[in-house]
Amino acid sequence: DIITGWVAKEAKVIEWGCGNGSLMQLLQSEKQCSCYGMELSDSGVEACLKKGLQVQQGRIDAPLPFNDNDFDIAICNVTIQMVLYPEILFKEMARIAKHQIISFPNFAYFKNRFDLLFNGRMPRQLLFEYQWYNTGHIHQLSIKDFNQLVAENKSLRIIRQTGVPVGYALLDWMGKWMPNL
Fold first, then answer.
1. Strand 71-77 and strand 97-103: pairing?
2. How high is the pLDDT of residue 105?
3. Cα distances (Å, whole numbers) of residue 144 to 85, 96, 124, 148, 174
4. For a FRET experiment, which of 73, 80, 133, 168 has its CA 20 to 30 Å from that of 93?
5. pTM attached to this predicted model
6. Residues whose CB falls within 8 Å of the CB of residue 125, separated by 6 or more in sequence, listed in order
């Protein structure tokens, strides 16, 4: 809902690491967007093609064959932590689209900190029920880490940043005023 709310009607969108294409499908149906996807996995590409979506298979953290400003919006939804070179991905996103939307799990979320502190293990909630050794996560990052990378890249700036509300007033307040927690 947050991402679709940030995308203008009829925008030309590219989604990096589009998985099964569910976000592209939603943007096409609700916002009449023209969508194109990039996906590494065979199963993701196959799922997109079955849905009639435009998708190309390949890595997203390498220079890609798109012209500057080919798209209105580039989206990287819960994928940045799974690529080898996020800084290259950022540069490519900024090159081919005027605006970028990037989402990721905050590894510094307070429940994850407690889980690591008290259990001494990588938080399972963060790994989406995988084990630490078989998840696609390569770079665990926090909101502070992300903000630092953006600050170091002079071609990028954060226009709007939000956390996903959890539905509890105190936690949502904490997320607004102390987002790294």
1. parallel
2. 85
3. 18, 25, 21, 6, 15
4. 133
5. 0.84
6. 111, 112, 115
